[in-house]
Design a protein that fits this description.
Helices cover 37% and strands 18% of the residues. With 396 residues, the chain is an alpha/beta fold. The protein has 2 domains: 145 residues, Aspartate Aminotransferase, domain 1 (Alpha-Beta Complex), CATH 3.90.1150; 231 residues, Type I PLP-dependent aspartate aminotransferase-like (Major domain) (Aspartate Aminotransferase, domain 2, 3-Layer(aba) Sandwich). The chain binds pyridoxal-5'-phosphate. The site of pyridoxal-5'-phosphate has 15 residues, from helix 5.
């Protein structure tokens, strides 16, 4: 099929409003479309290609694994799965790992673990899961029920029972948390899809305290914030908390589909053989990509670099805000998860950036632009981005 007919007569269900370009190749911070046009990609496949596109180390290890073993099921021990679990546990405050294939599945696993722990280990009636307004936790029935956004619920009633949404960063709302009904709180430390909203550190501390007092699991959804995105390997490190459960996906496999749910020893008791599973979860290819990704981040000492680049990006954006106060209202975010609040609809700016400057950026709600460069981006790339972005603002 020719390019235009492919884009006009797609056999795909219309679950996404896709932009009219076909991406056929990627390397580092750049992608190319079918016509050969090069784009600076500051979306990283939505915080997924954290090492840039087709990173050498991960590529080589995947090649080796493709030659060796693709799949064998979880009825047997898989060395790369054990290795990835071990690495994640060494690099975090958690003790046990469960692997799946996506972010939604990681949150499903967390929700199931919390409910089963309350039911089987604590033997209580508490099954409510509390999440927050403007949160995003996925698209399966349980995780869309967990998501605190009407537009994600629309048309899918009845939602799953037992999900409640509290206002984010609201101290008084914490009074509503009771261990009698609630078994877990699920929290994004920086709301990604909901507008790049960082949690207030004092509030997170208060939330942790309340959860401990009430015997409620504190579960952090680090599917977007994890794997170096916010300037530490995991965002919770910056908040001085130790959650009971953490979910990961996006950045963990450098683009290879993988999800993970990590838990403290005690919380992990919620699952026993037969209580949860996944055919593909922790598959040799996926966990090889995960191990190689973490090794590459540690070997290249990428976290401090990403933090520095995040500060650099924020500073140049603040300068741009001074030049264009009529277009840019606020810069927010953490590390390389950066939001720009715009006066105009964010989607118009995203479209102009792509069409006129060959620059790929994202929205996070109607008036927030989300910028997610790979962790190994450079100040040269950031300068190129800001120059192009300035031209877009100038032409508004
Ligand atoms: C992307 C995302 C999810 C869902 O992940 P999928 O892999 O699309 O299922 C869940 N939570 C957060 C915070 C996310 O950013």
């Amino acid at each position: 099929m020719s390019k235009s007919s492919l884009l006009e007569h797609s056999a795909l269900m219309s679950t996404y409003g896709r932009f009219p370009i076909e991406i056929v190749k990627g390397k580092g911070s750049y992608v190319w479309d079918a016509a050969g046009t090069q784009y600076l990609d500051f979306t990283s496949g939505i915080a997924t290609c954290n090492l840039g596109h087709v990173p050498e180390g991960v590529k080589d290890k995947l090649h080796d694994q493709v030659e060796t073993l693709w799949h064998c099921s979880n009825l047997y021990h898989i060395p790369s799965q054990e290795q990835l679990a071990q690495k994640l546990i060494e690099l975090s405050c958690f003790d046990k790992a469960f692997f799946c294939n996506s972010g939604a599945e990681a949150n499903e696993a967390a929700i199931k673990l919390a409910r089963r722990y309350a039911n089987k280990v604590k033997k209580t009636e508490a099954f409510n899961i509390v999440t927050f307004q403007h949160s995003f936790h996925g698209r399966t029935m349980a995780t869309l029920s967990a998501t605190g956004q009407e537009k994600i619920h629309d048309g899918f009633d009845p939602l799953l029972k037992g999900f409640h949404y509290l206002p984010y960063n609201d101290f008084t709302a914490l009074d509503q948390l009771s261990g009698k009904q609630t078994c877990a709180v699920l929290l994004e430390l920086v709301q990604g899809e909901g507008g790049v909203n960082p949690a207030d550190p004092e509030w997170v501390k208060a939330l942790e305290k309340k959860c401990h007092a009430e015997g409620i699991f504190l579960m952090v959804d680090e599917i977007q914030t994890g794997v170096g995105r916010t300037g530490t390997l995991f965002a919770y490190e910056q908040y001085g908390i130790e959650p009971d459960v953490m979910t990961l996906a996006k950045g963990l496999g450098s683009g290879f589909p993988i999800g993970a749910m990590l838990a403290k020893e005690e919380a992990a008791k919620g699952f026993t053989p037969g209580s949860h599973g996944s055919t593909f979860g922790g598959n040799p290819l996926a966990t090889t990509a995960g191990v190689a990704t973490l090794e590459a981040i540690v070997e290249a000492d990428l976290i401090p670099h990403a933090k520095e680049m995040g500060t650099y990006l924020k500073n140049v954006l603040e300068k741009l805000k001074e030049t264009y106060p009529e277009h840019i209202l606020e810069i927010k975010g953490k590390g390389l998860l950066v939001g720009v609040v715009t006066a105009q609809p964010a989607i118009d700016i995203v479209n102009k950036a792509r069409e006129e400057q060959h620059l790929l950026i994202l929205t996070a709600g109607p008036q927030v632009i989300r910028i997610l460069p790979p962790l190994n981006t450079t100040s040269i790339e950031i300068d190129a981005f800001v120059q192009a972005f300035a031209k877009v603002l100038q032409s508004l």
